[in-house]
């Protein structure tokens, strides 16, 4: 299984596999018809409160990941996690799509690590 990460502002490629948007809000300035998003799993995004607290501050990254993974274990995220698990079972490759400028410290990266660590 290969899980790629890609900003919503980057061009979609056939090699991406299914593209799954994991942000709560649609990326500003990106037309839905151009984004080539197979699924928009809003409940896999961090809460607004957590996102604002984090502010993409790399010093807060470890604690952000801890808090975010707790949120993923909530009932609110359960259905979207089942959908994600199904997609992973059906495809050898998929791409988690996000809008953040920081390509290393964002919820898609934390979610990928969560999956690859066998927690999904």
From TrEMBL:
Pfam families: DUF488-N3i. InterPro entries: YeaO-like. It comes from the Bacteria. This is Putative conserved protein YeaO, DUF488 family.
């Amino acid at each position: 299984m290969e899980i790629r990460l890609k900003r919503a502002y980057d061009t979609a490629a056939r090699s991406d596999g299914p593209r799954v948007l994991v942000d709560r809000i649609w990326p500003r300035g990106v037309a839905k018809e151009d984004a080539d998003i197979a699924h928009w799993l809003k409940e896999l995004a961090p809460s607004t409160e957590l996102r604002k607290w984090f502010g993409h501050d790399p010093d807060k990254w470890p604690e952000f990941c801890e808090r975010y993974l707790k949120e993923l274990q909530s009932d609110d995220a359960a259905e979207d996690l089942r959908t994600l698990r199904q997609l992973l079972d059906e495809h050898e490759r998929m791409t988690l799509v996000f809008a953040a400028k920081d390509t290393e410290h964002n919820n898609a990266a934390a979610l990928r690590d969560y999956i690859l660590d066998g927690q999904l």
